[in-house]
Amino acid sequence: MTIQTHILGYPRIGAKRELKFACEAYWKNETSQTEFLEKAYAVEASNWQAQIDAGTSLLTVGDFVLYDSILTHAVRLGVIPARFHEASKLNQIDQQFYLARGRAPNCSDVAALEMTKWFDTNYHYLVPELDSAQTFNADFSELYAQVDRAKTLKQPLKVVVPGLLTFLYLSRIVDQQQSSEVQDHHKEHDCECGHEHAELAADKATLQFVDALIPIYAKLFDELSARGVEYVQVDEPILVLDLAPEWQAAFERVYHLLQRRDALKLIITTYFETLGENLNLAVNLPVAGLHIDISREKAGEFFWKKVIDQLPSHKILSLGVINGRSVWASDLVKLDEIVQTAQKTLADRLWLSTGCSLLHVPVDLSSETVPSNIDGKLAFARQKLDELVALASGNIYVNEKLSKAAEHSFDLVAQSRPEAFEIRFKAQQEKFNLPLIPTTTIGSFPQTTEIRAARAAWNKGQLSDADYETAMKKEIAYAIEQQVALGLDVLVHGEAERTDMVEYFASLLDGFWLSKFGWVQSYGSRCVRPPIIVADISRPNAMTVKWIEYANSLSDKIVKGMLTGPVTILNWSFPPAHRTRREVCLQLAEAIRLEVSDLQTAGVEIIQIDEAAFREGLPLRKADRPEYWDWAVKSFKHCSSSAKLDTQIHTHMCYSDFKDCLAEITAMDADVITIETSRSGLQLLEVFHQQGYPNAIGPGVYDIHSPRTPSSENMRSVIDGALKTIPAERLWVNPDCGLKTRNWAETKAALTELVKMAKEIRKELEAA
């Protein structure tokens, strides 16, 4: 008997990033909305065809969106913050882009929605903003149109909808005149999916909207049923978190009110972890079925058996057997043992699926030239469809090429800098003699058309190594020249030679393989190509020294050396099958430690080791976090341990919730940390105010992901807030993140305002 198969979602960028290029052309007014949608719907149709060709039982509809699914759902619900009041003259397509980018045709530029990490992935979602007196004006016509397009394919459908409670949990209440209850929520609910809801008031602040949303969801389900839809995948991934009792009670109430007695069947979908303490709650919700992600279970845990034991006898259980976040081929023989065991109890109530959406892996392996040492070991999204159908149909085969665990474990005695921060910082201040609140940037400058053209020609063999180096040095010289003209205090070389902050280092370290078309969506039109760790990591040669040395020779000002930290390289790569994450991270730390040493020898005095993904890999459950923090902190301290007393170590973090890990960030003991603050409404900076931070800090004063240019007054609000608790001697000024996605006109305009603001405040401080 063939088992029912479906997937939770498919990559929406297109096999060759067609959606990315269509979006960007539309934003530049190079194409009309009609032309843009034609290209977008072609990707949608291709995704459906891939499922049909593979033979999945159900066609997944509704997972394809133009920017982000939570953003799309917010706009469909009419959740448009007050500052976007001009959005009323836009259709839903442009409304989404307006909220995400802060810019739309014939509208004033405003601050975009906050963007933060989707659970423990490198994908970013847009955080919905709810007014304390929020009303909802729902319009799901675009979703219905998507269903109608899919129905022409004559395939059984399953429609994907973000769950009511997950949507609220991931939202933020923002109000000019907030009640104290909502203000408490604002402080507690920093919209990182692993946050705690420690206070009842914080939960009530968001849960107050449940009653308003229930009839909207009921009407949505009724309309889908009327259109002949039999199954709705209701994504409620927060069921894998440590939920407060108020949220658990809300689940029982909401789904008792939303239970359907017609032909429509609701499947509650969870992923990224087991249900944990929410097991009894989840299996007993009054819905037709439940999906669990077994690919994330710990070895020997067998939590899926507990689910089967407690699942009511009339319910469907969808087992997420194919890992939606791994690029390694599945062991079908091993998975078949699970399927056979589950089928004995569940019979035709057993469905098979991917653990989570395939959004988190590249689209198709067939376009790649895979090296012989890993040939047959990989599976991208399209290949995972085949694995899923093969498993369901019993077409099991033994893959002799699957990676085996390493024969010997790797260990490293992590080192750290011996001197305390106070001693180091005093020596650094005396050495550098920088002004109060020195200005700098995070590292990258615009990746211009000329840079991309030179790199493309070099990759095709049309440009020699010498000519490519000359071209990159020209771009570095321009970046230094512009920074000097702008009046920045500490310069960067601009990273012209780097495609990506992780990919670049992976290309120079042994143990990685870089695919050619293995793109994965990070946010909006931003795609990354995560390296794949295929063997033990080592550094054969220096990776950055010649570029920084050259930049240093162009100015008397200090030029920072720019490195990516071990935790971020690990978290933004696909991990290996043969080593633990801890082992790999320590191997990376040793490679970066050697690079720090070589940079110092070359005369580099400030070295930035970016750990943008430091918190990203944090386990979703509190009980699992101490182990992660142990090796993550040790790895960073090890890679900076070769720094001398007066060598200043910077690190950068962005788009994360710091309130539950400030102790670990402090333990990293970087001399200076630069953080994102502008898009999150200064809430991340508030954490440093509340808990204290002993080292130097550079709060980001403007959002680089938006094309709008903020005024110096806008930027000043960040620094004025920081000065309330952070001494001026320990305060830096910088943008939120790197500037590679901006153009030079935008960059110079924003940095001009940044330097102007810093000089004004510096003058006031010196006068005082």
From TrEMBL:
Residues covered by the Cobalamin-independent methionine synthase MetE N-terminal domain: 5-345
Record bears the keyword Transferase: yes
Domain Cobalamin-independent methionine synthase MetE C-terminal/archaeal: 437-759
UniProt keyword terms in alphabetical order: Amino-acid biosynthesis, Metal-binding, Methionine biosynthesis, Methyltransferase, Transferase, Zinc
Active site location: 705
EC code(s) of this entry: 2.1.1.14
Residues that coordinate or bind 5-methyltetrahydropteroyltri-L-glutamate: 20, 122, 526-527, 572
GO BP of this protein: methionine biosynthetic process; methylation
Function (record text): Catalyzes the transfer of a methyl group from 5-methyltetrahydrofolate to homocysteine resulting in methionine formation.
Sequence similarity: Belongs to the vitamin-B12 independent methionine synthase family.
PANTHER family assigned to the protein according to its UniProt record, in alphabetical order: 5-METHYLTETRAHYDROPTEROYLTRIGLUTAMATE--HOMOCYSTEINE METHYLTRANSFERASE
Protein name: 5-methyltetrahydropteroyltriglutamate--homocysteine S-methyltransferase
Species of origin: Acinetobacter gerneri DSM 14967 = CIP 107464 = MTCC 9824
Upper lineage: Bacteria, Pseudomonadati, Pseudomonadota, Gammaproteobacteria, Moraxellales
